[in-house]
C-alpha cells in the first residue's frame, strides 16, 4: 500500500511538473499562426514543393479571421483535384465529392441549412471543364456560396495535361507543340453569368487575396475568387519556369491591376494577368428566395420534412 | 524570433524570394529530409511584417515577438504619451490665448 501511495505521489508530482512545463514548452516551440486550424496529424501535406495551394489556405484563414468567422460556422466542399484536397486538412466539416459536382453538392448543403457558410474549393479543371455548367448556373441562380477557384493553368494531379484555362502557346504533356486554343477567362465568364462578387488575384498577392476572401465570405450571393497559382512540377517544368521562385517572379512581372488594364489596349494585354475586383453587386439570393417561398406556402422556413426536426418538436 | 520547422519545410525558397528585408539565406547543408532549409541569418533586419508566414505554403515558419520588442513597444508608448502631453499643452496654450 505504501509503495502504491508513493508511486501515486510520484506520478502526481510528475503530472504537476508536466502541467507546469507545458505552457513554457509551447512558448519555446512557436507554431505557424494558422496551424491551429489544420489537422496536425496529417501534416506535412501532400502538395508539391512550392505549390500555391498552401498560400491560398493561409490567405483563406486570414480572410476568415478578419471576417470574424469561426470554423464551426463554415463547411467546406470540394471536388477532385490537387486544390480539392485542401478541405481534408482543415478542422471543419467537409464534403469531398465527385469530379466537377462540388457546387451542386454545396447548393444542397446551403439550401438544407441556410445558416451555414459554405465554401467551395475547386481547381480550374474541376470548375471550368467538367463542372463548367454547374459553375455558370450556380452564378446565374446566385446561390450564397463562396467559391475559391485555384487556377494553376494545367491538370496537375493527372500528369500535366492542358486544361481549359491554359494560356495560348503554353506547353503540356498533351500539347508538345504548344496549345492553339483560346483559354477561358473564368472571372469574366462568371461575371457574365451574374455572380454577386468576383475577383481575381495571384499567389503573389496574399494580402489582397485575403481581403477579397473576407468580402466574398460576407457578401450574400454567389462570390467567386479566382487565384492564379503556380504548379512548378508540371506547368513550370514544361514552360521554362522550373522553380517556384521563377513562377512567382513571372506572376509579379505579368500581373496588372484592372483599373490600369481598363485604360490599355488589347495588344498590350497579351500574356498579362489582369488582377483585381471585377464585380461587387449583391442581388437577391437563391437560398433566401427558397426560404421566403416555403414561408409563404408552408409557414415554415424549411419546406423539407426532416425526421430530426420532427423528433425535436415532439420532445 | 523566427523559427523554421524542419519537419514541415519542403525547401521551396519562396520565403527567401518574398522577404522585403532579405532576412533569409539558403543553408548550405542538407537536412535529414534532403531539404536545404531557409536560414534567418539577418534576423535583426526583420520588421515582423509576417509576409513569410503568409507566403509559406507548408505552414513551417513562425515569427513571434521577442522580449526586446516589448521594450521597443514600451518606448513607443512613452513617445505616444509624450505626443498626447504635447497635444494637451497646445490645447491649453490655445485656451489661454483665446482668453
Word description of this protein:
The complex is a heterodimer of chains A (315) and B (99). Chain A has 315 residues and is α/β, with parallel strands linked by helices. Chain A has helices at residues 2-28, 53-66, 102-112, 124-130, 132-141, 186-193, 206-218, 232-238, 244-254, 258-262, 286-298, 307-314; strands at residues 74-78, 93-96, 117-123, 146-151, 154-155, 161-162, 197-202, 223-228, 255-257, 273-280. Chain A folds into two domains: 35-283, Thiamin diphosphate (ThDP)-binding fold, Pyr/PP domains (Rossmann fold); 286-315, no CATH class. In chain A, a hairpin with a 5-residue loop joins strand 5 (154-155) and strand 6 (161-162). The longest helix of chain A is centred in the first third of the chain and has 27 residues, at 2-28. With 99 residues, chain B is an alpha+beta fold. Chain B has helices spanning 14-18, 51-55, 67-98, and strands at 2-4, 24-26, 38-40, 61-63. Chain B has a two-stranded antiparallel sheet with strand order 1-4. In chain B, strands 2-3 form a two-stranded antiparallel ribbon. The A-B interface holds A 29-35, 38, 43-45, 47-55, 57-59, 62, 203-204, 206-207, 210, 243-245, 248-249 and B 1, 3, 5, 7-8, 10-14, 16-18, 50-51, 53-62, 64.
In summary, what is this structure?
Chain B: This is Electron transport complex subunit RsxB. The complex is a heterodimer of chains A (315) and B (99). Chain A is an alpha/beta fold and 315 residues long.
> How many beta strands in the DSSP annotation of chain B?
4
Number of helices of chain B: 3
Number of domains of chain A: 2
Order of helices and strands of chain B: EHEEHEH
The interface involving the most residues is between: A-B, 34 and 26 residues
Low-confidence stretches of chain A: 10-25
Summarize the amount of helix of chain B as a percent range. 40-55%
Amino acid at each position: 500500500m505504501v509503495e502504491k501511495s508513493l508511486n501515486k505521489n510520484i506520478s502526481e508530482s510528475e503530472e504537476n511538473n508536466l502541467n507546469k512545463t507545458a505552457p513554457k514548452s509551447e512558448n519555446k516551440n512557436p507554431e505557424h499562426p494558422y496551424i491551429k486550424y489544420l489537422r496536425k496529424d496529417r501534416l506535412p501535406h501532400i502538395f508539391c514543393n512550392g505549390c500555391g495551394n498552401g498560400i491560398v489556405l493561409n490567405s483563406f484563414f486570414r480572410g476568415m479571421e478578419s471576417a470574424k468567422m469561426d470554423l464551426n460556422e463554415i463547411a467546406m466542399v470540394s471536388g477532385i483535384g490537387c486544390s480539392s484536397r485542401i478541405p481534408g486538412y482543415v478542422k471543419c466539416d467537409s464534403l469531398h465529392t465527385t469530379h466537377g459536382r462540388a457546387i451542386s453538392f454545396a447548393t444542397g448543403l446551403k439550401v438544407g441549412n441556410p445558416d451555414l457558410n459554405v465554401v467551395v474549393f475547386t481547381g480550374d479543371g474541376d470548375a471550368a471543364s467538367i463542372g463548367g455548367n454547374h459553375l455558370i448556373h450556380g452564378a446565374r441562380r446566385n446561390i450564397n456560396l463562396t467559391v475559391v477557384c485555384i487556377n494553376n493553368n494545367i491538370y496537375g494531379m493527372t500528369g500535366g495535361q492542358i486544361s481549359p484555362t491554359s494560356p495560348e502557346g503554353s506547353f503540356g504533356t498533351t500539347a508538345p507543340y504548344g496549345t492553339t486554343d483560346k483559354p477561358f477567362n473564368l472571372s469574366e465568364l462568371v461575371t457574365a453569368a451574374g455572380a454577386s462578387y468576383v475577383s481575381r488575384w495571384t499567389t503573389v498577392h496574399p494580402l489582397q487575396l485575403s481581403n477579397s476572401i473576407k468580402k466574398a465570405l460576407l457578401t450574400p450571393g454567389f462570390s467567386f475568387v479566382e487565384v492564379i497559382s503556380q504548379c512548378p512540377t508540371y506547368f513550370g517544368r514544361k514552360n521554362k519556369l522550373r522553380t517556384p521562385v521563377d513562377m512567382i517572379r513571372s506572376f509579379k512581372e505579368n500581373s496588372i491591376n484592372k483599373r490600369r488594364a481598363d485604360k490599355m489596349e488589347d495588344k498590350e494585354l497579351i500574356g498579362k494577368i489582369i488582377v483585381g475586383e471585377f464585380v461587387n453587386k449583391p442581388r437577391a439570393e437563391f437560398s433566401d428566395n427558397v426560404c421566403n417561398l416555403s414561408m409563404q406556402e408552408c409557414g415554415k422556413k424549411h419546406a423539407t420534412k426532416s425526421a430530426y426536426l420532427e423528433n425535436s418538436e415532439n420532445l | 524570433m523566427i523559427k523554421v520547422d524542419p519537419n514541415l519545410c519542403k525547401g521551396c525558397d519562396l520565403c527567401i524570394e518574398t522577404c522585403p528585408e532579405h532576412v533569409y539565406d539558403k543553408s548550405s547543408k542538407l537536412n535529414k529530409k534532403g531539404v536545404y532549409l531557409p536560414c534567418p541569418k539577418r534576423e535583426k533586419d526583420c520588421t515582423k511584417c509576417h509576409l513569410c508566414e503568409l507566403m509559406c505554403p507548408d505552414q513551417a515558419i513562425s515569427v513571434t515577438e521577442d522580449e526586446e520588442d516589448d521594450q521597443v513597444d514600451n518606448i513607443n508608448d512613452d513617445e505616444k504619451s509624450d505626443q498626447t502631453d504635447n497635444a494637451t499643452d497646445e490645447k491649453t496654450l490655445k485656451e489661454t490665448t483665446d482668453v
